[in-house]
Protein: DNA-3-methyladenine glycosylase I
Organism: Baileyella intestinalis
Amino acid sequence: MSNSCGAWYEGDTLLENYHENEWCKVSHDDRFQFEMLCLEGASTGLSWKTIMHRRNAYKAAFNNFSIEKCASMTDEALEKLMNDSSLIRNRSKIFSVRKNARVVKELQMEFGSFDAYLWSFTDGKVIDSHWTDTDQIPAESAISQAMSRDMKKRGMKYVGPVITYSFMQSIGMVNDHLTDCPFR
């Protein structure tokens, strides 16, 4: 594996832009966090590249990941998305967006925001391990395992510990840019 922080995007300009402008950048926006949770879940068993190249289609299909609108999607609306070739047509993944939106609404009621719930796992602090080589970056952590367990207990889908670790990177809870990366 290359020791370059951006080696994973393989010259793909869309992924390069994501790496430079979004990946490991702190976000406290519930809508964006929900979007990243859904996209990370959609990537289960697939490459992040596949999902990112369909991101705009997912935004269109799921009302720009409005938590309220996703939570109230009907079975008919979700079934219709099974015919949309711009999405990964996995019924369980498509229906998980509604299920997860409903759980996020419950978390917002309980914690005041989805953001407050998420950041409670790190006491509001960014986890920054100061990696010098990509081989040091883990696929999961004790915190992602705890988050995964809690999310599953609450009924969320596609939130295993590897997915939750990637999710934590995507919203900046974890900064895994290498120490020499200019986008750190």
About this structure: The mean pLDDT is 95. The CA atoms of residues 126 and 173 lie 5 Å apart. Strands lie at 127-128, 174-175. The domain at 14-175 is CATH 1.10.340.30 (Endonuclease III; domain 1).
